Amino acid sequence: MLKDSRYTEVKNSLEDLNLNTVCEEAQCPNIGECWSGGTGTIMLLGDTCTRGCMFCAVKTDTAPPPPDPFEPFKTAEAVAKWGVNYIVLTSVDRDDIPDGGAQHFAHTVELLKHKKEELLVECLVSDFQGDLDSVATLATSGLDVYAHNIETVERLQKFIRDPKAGYQQSLSTLEHAKKAKPGLYTKTSVMLGLGETEKEVLQTMKDLRAIDVDVVTFGQYLRPTEHHLSVVEYVKPEMFDYYRKVGEDMGFKYVASGPMVRSSYKAGEFYLEHMITTDRERSSQKEEELVEAIAG
Prior knowledge:
Protein name: Lipoyl synthase, mitochondrial
Binding site for [4Fe-4S] cluster 1: 23, 28, 34, 264
Helix content: 40-55%
Number of strands: 8
Low-confidence stretches: none
Radius of gyration: 19 Å
CATH class: Alpha Beta
Enzyme class: transferase
Distance between the termini: 59 Å
CATH architecture: Alpha-Beta Barrel
Keywords: 4Fe-4S, Iron, Iron-sulfur, Metal-binding, Mitochondrion, S-adenosyl-L-methionine, Transferase
Strand order of the largest sheet: 1-2-3-4-5-6-7-8
Domain Radical SAM core: 35-253
Oligomer: single chain
Number of helices: 11
C-alpha cells in the first residue's frame, strides 16, 4: 500500500475531525492510491448501516447512533485542507431517519460549495427507500454528480442486496434525480463475478441508458469476509474491456471497467472532472454565441 506524506495528512485530518471514510469501512483496495493522492471518500451519517447487504463489509444495526450535527462543517473543513477540485461523499443507509439523511447531505454540499464554489461534488447515496422528495432535495442541493449504485443485475438483487433495496427502486431513484435537476450527471456501479450472465449485464446497461444515466462503472466483487457472499467467478480482463466498449457504443459519457475499479476511484474522478469542466465550457460558449447572434 502506498503511504507518503499526503496519505498521512489525509489520515490525520480525518482522525482529528472524527470523520469516517468508505475507504476504510468498506475495505477498499485502492485506499493507498487515493489517500496518497490527497483525497478520500468521506462517509456521512456515521459508520453503521441500517441495512445488511450480503456483499458489504460496513457494520449494521437497526438503531445506529444519531448523526453528528457538526459533520457537514467538519467535512467542509477537511476537504478545504486537502485542496482538491473533486470530492466524493457517500454514506451508510439510514432508514431510521425520516428523509434518509437527504437534508444532512444537502447541507454538506452547500457548505462545501460555499468554501470553494468551483469544487465538483459527487454524492454516492442510498435509494432513500424510494422517497422521491428526498431524492429531489439532494439533486437540487448544488451537487454535480448524483450517484446511486444498482450493484448487480435484476435477477440477483434479492440474493445480494438488503430486502429494502430493489432494481426498479434504484432505477427510479436515478431517473428522478435527473428530472429534478435537468443537466445533472447521474452515475451507477455494477459488481461482476456474482453469477451474472453477459446477457443480463447488457440488459442492465440498456435499462440504465433508457433513463439517461451518464456514467457506469464495473468492478470485480471481492469477498470481504467469510461471512459474506462467495465469489462465483473472477471475470477476465477481456470481459471488462468488452463491457467498456459496449457501454461507450451505447452512449454512456464515461465507462470505467476493470477488476479493481470501484464506484469512488481516483482515476475516474480525474476523468469526470475533465468531462464536466469541458461540457460546461462548451455550454457557456454556446450561450455566449447565442447572445451575440441575438444582439447582432
